[in-house]
Amino acid sequence: MTEKRFEEHIEKYLISHEDGGLKYHATNHNQYNKDLCVLPTEVIDFIKTSQPKAYENWQVQFGEDSEEKLLKRLAIDIQKRGVIDVLRTGIRERGVYLDLVYFEPKSSLNPEHQAKYLCNKLSVVRQLHYSKQNPKKSIDMVLCINGIPIIGIELKNQLTGQDISDAIKQFKFDRDPKNEPLLQFKRMLVHFIVDNDTVGMTSKLNGADTRFLPYNKGIINPIVENDYKVSYLWKEILSPSSVLDIIENFVLETTEIDKEWDDKAGKVVEKKKDLLIFPRYHQLEVIRKLRNQIKADGTGQYYLIQHTTGSGKSYSIGWLAHTLTSLYKNSTDKTRIFDTVVVITDRKVLDKQLQKTLRELEQTAGVVKAIDKNSDQLKTALEKGNDIIVTTIQKFGVIADFMSKLKGRTFGVIIDEVHSSQTGETSKKLKKSLSLNEIEVDEENTEEDYEDILNKEITARGKQKHISFFGFTGTPKNKTLELFGRKNPAGQFEAFHTYSMKQALAEGYTLDVLEHYMTYKRWFKLKQEDEQDDLELPEGKVKKELVNYVDSHPETIRQKVYIILNQFVHHTQKQIMGKARAMVVVRSRKHCVLFQQEMVKQMKALRLPYSCLVAFSGSIKHEGEEHTESSLNTANGLQNNVSIPDGLKDPRFRILIVSNKFQTGFDEPLIHTMFVDKLLGGVQCVQTLSRLNRKTSGKTDTFVLDFVNEPEAILEAFQPYYTSTLLTGETDPHKLYDLDTEIKSFHLFTKYELDEFCKVFYSEREGDGALQPYLNRAVEKWQEIEEEDKREEYRSLINSYCRLYSYIAQIMNFTDAELEKLYIFLKYLKKKLPKRKGSSIDITDSIDLDSLRIQKIGEQKLSLEDKQGELDPMTEGGTKGTGEEETDYLSEIIKKVNEIHGIHLKDEDRIHLNNVYLRMSQSAEVKKVMEGDNSEANKKQFWTEMMSKMFLEYINDNFDFYKTVESADKKPIIADMMYQHFKRSSQTK
């Protein structure tokens, strides 16, 4: 089986299969003009056939030179503007306009347009000799549209001993685009490399720097009966209708803008790079699958697209939005399926990349309207009927009342990161804002009853037949799967389309954040300062406070910062050609302040040429001083007008400390290492660690150092999203009736009071005063319940009911007016119930940290299983009552905590360490060096050397102790801890 036979096989298929009235024909490579880079005869034939009057006008202008002038104008325009722009907009000269391609008409109501479409001529040229420099050089196959080359294919046959890697080498080292017009950027849409099993592609040849991207159906292509694994390429992607669809709707010329630090300018500057985006296989597949499914479904359906980081989501959303604006149910329809397409992002600042993509795809000016000012701007856009509106979820909710008046309109709503935008009350408000007001009332003869209004509210919360939702996320929660997913025959919910984390990793679009995972553990012992004053306290709360005390203790923070900086200085800072950054994820805003202050202090002591930044929302008071991220960063040298993302690109700031803020949605490819001092779980865990997975030049791996999470918990969080995610079943709505029964068994209100409350609620009223008596009576009865745990059980029940009802109302057309009334009443009652008593207990004056050890457990690769992820459906949540909390004496609680957290600290070790410290602190030689005119680094080095000499004395009598304290992970910490204690003691004398 030779390469030639592989060519023949593909050519034979292309020229023998008709597709919508079009098919390829074979053209000899001798027809190709190397100067003009076209097939001259086919260009002229197409224009004469499809536009005879325009060609006659051209001949009037140019006479005998008509053909030559036309071909030269075409070649010049392609050279200047690129082939995609010329194909979409044509060429013009001296008032004559000529089209170079005709796209498939959206409807069959215009026969003339259909006839022009059938004039398109697709050709396949084998062994096209493109080079004037070297006549022997040829491309195996080139596909042309109306004589214009658009797609190149280089074939390799494994049966002759070559595969796709040989094609890559050929393009990199034997296809230099310099001085070769056809190979230059934007002259062709795409270059495919193909062997029997694998496809790759690039839209830009760049010599040795050419980057080929995978173009397979999955990580590997499935076996095809009686054909090649890669046969989908010529059967699906390269069919005439597919190629014309790609040219018309998908290929995108864009400019990528990256921010980089410029040493000469001394600031962050924008670097622009021109790109030609050819749709990846999964992007083309999802848009075409949606296009067909929507035509079958009509409006009113939900579609979940589970596309992970690295999927090119902004482009997919852009292509979908423009597809929806020109979608008809069938070829005879005059009305589009969707009047308006709304693209929603949950970020307060509109996604600039998304806006840019949408605008670059629009072929008619004014199609896309970005709502970036206020709700009035959004109202105007909807009134005008803009095809595509881009807005944020925050602005969308403001105009709910106005939107409900838009009757008879159809909407396609595309949501970026669906789980964060489309759960809870926000989703219901969004649906209500698009409501058709389906219940009509004869206003002249009847007064609208509150029950009618109630039913309308219920309907507005459920699925709306005029609104289709398209949700994009890589990490769907169980709620998201049930709301947006599709039920399979087994009763499970799944995404409409998936591009998995596993595939993104395999194809090299993202990095594996679990590949280098190092865990640390801290052990400690506490002591009670005054055992005479031994208070009896609630055990659970005190245990929590004791652990919080340790994790906020200056010594704990100091040791963790020491470990962080040791790792960063000796390893991280060398990564990404010396540009690597790190993120420190801490548990609270207070810890942001504690870590930042300690890190700045240690960085100065080490004389590092860089410092750190901090990011958190709002302000936090610490030691009598109010702190914000701005005040801390400004004091540390960040200019007021520089954002934190820009600041992190500055070589003077290389570590970012965060709490919640920047844990999601922050894309900085230079972040190589993450230090985690916060419990992470579920979607938050995946999204936080995924801050590391962005690729950039020179970045080959990532690193995580985790102080608190167990590796098993991290794997548990990631596993559901590694391949595709299933919801194992659906939420049982009958749980609402169970909760309803339990809530009413407390007898805090009657059915009459509930009905009267709702009548007032749904009536036109100026204020909420009339609602108060009903709520106040229920609150009084709640306060009369003697047992505290019973009161808290009731609070828990109403929270569970409101949460579950709010959720179920989103996923099904739920029309029980009694449950809706209860929901409305309880939603306000829970706000009126007195808040729980404060749970914090201040024990800081009663305890002290006796000993502390933070030890490296080890580094490992966390491996995910290659299986479908599963999530369980939502339950009502809550608890049946807290019960009476056990109490114990503080001394006993401390003892229990020490048993858990101090298990690896031996008293014998501490005695030996104390002895070593006493000898060193009393040594005249040590004092001389410490009090002398020596640098901090030299003092520290001397201290460590002296300590090692003393440890050496234990090698014969107590080898276990020697082995422990001299280990590579413990010795630096012990030396530093002793050294810092010596310094503090010297300063207080």
Automatic annotation (TrEMBL):
PROSITE patterns: HELICASE_ATP_BIND_1 (PS51192). Transmembrane segments: none annotated. InterPro entries: Helicase_ATP-bd, HsdR_RecA-like_helicase_dom_2, P-loop_NTPase, Restrct_endonuc_type1_HsdR_N, SWI2_SNF2. Residues 865-885 are annotated as: Disordered. One of its GO terms (molecular function) is type I site-specific deoxyribonuclease activity. One of its GO terms (biological process) is DNA restriction-modification system. Pfam families: HSDR_N, SWI2_SNF2, T1R_D3-like. Residues 294-494 form the Helicase ATP-binding domain. This is Type I restriction endonuclease subunit R. It comes from Emticicia aquatilis.
